[in-house]
Amino acid sequence: MLTMLCVITNLFASLSPSHPTSASDFNDYTSFCQKAAEDPEIFAHFKASGIYQIVLEHLNYDQGKQFLNLIMAQSPEFLKYAELFRTNDLIGDPKVFTYPVIGQMSPSTLRYIKIASDLTLLFGDLNGASIIEIGGGYGGQCKIISDLYKFKKYTIVDLPGPVALTKKYLEAQGVTNVEFKTFDDTINDEAFDLLLSNYAYTECTTEMQEKYDREILSRSTKGYMISSEQGRKKTDTFNRLRSYGIVFTQLPEHPQTANSSLPNYTLIWGANPGTSLK
What we know:
This protein is of the alpha/beta class. The protein has one domain: 3-Layer(aba) Sandwich (Rossmann fold), CATH 3.40.50.150. The protein is 41% helix and 17% strand. It contains twelve helices and nine strands. The chain has helices at 2-10, 27-38, 40-44, 50-53, 61-74, 82-86, 107-123, 140-148, 160-172, 200-203, 206-215, 231-243, and strands spanning 97-99, 103-105, 130-134, 153-158, 178-182, 192-198, 220-227, 249-252, 265-269. The chain has a seven-stranded mixed β-sheet with strand order 5-4-3-6-7-9-8. Helix 5 (61-74) packs parallel to helix 7 (107-123) and helix 11 (206-215) runs parallel beside helix 12. The longest helix is centred in the middle third of the chain and has 17 residues, at 107-123. The protein is globular. The model is unreliable at 1-25 (pLDDT under 50).
């Protein structure tokens, strides 16, 4: 998934900031997000944009089916919220497919539901929780979690353009109690109940990761991070987490979305004892 983004991002090197903070920090993407936040016509179709699909909204039917199968195996009770979840596809003109049991839905929405299922199995009830997400995309994960739980506060950290789009999107969806931070903002909250990152943390530069280690990860009681890191950078991340006393478990990403021989994986900590994913 975003492992492929690292390769694609090199094609935009001449257009990128001189000191990019992450794999998605290239001008075509960030400026498009800003325009989508400001222009109602672009906003109405932003999920169908080719430039946006470099980073998000590029999942196919089969991947969506895999997510659906896992949802049904882990959290079949989620199916009763299908109509509520489906409202995530009413804005932005995403590509939708017709699936068994659940009907028409975008693969991205199914992915967000599957991750919400993971979070529920691992950490239990998220009502009243203080959640922080590094790299919030357009806010889809936040929206789906809000369909299930009334969190105390949900903080989203991202680049300025994506933050503007996420704010507009979640306001349009009626999601409240959300705070927005850019990558350069200092995060002063004393603690978080749950840290969430779908690839974004591990696509950041080492400098930005170290900032997040200090300001977010070390203050997060529970964590769920899907990662694409390999080699030396992976080892360095693991060593930094251990230095903050974070006792984590590495699980395979399921379903596997990496388009290479180097599989993605999921890091979790603070899970309820004895819980496991399908």
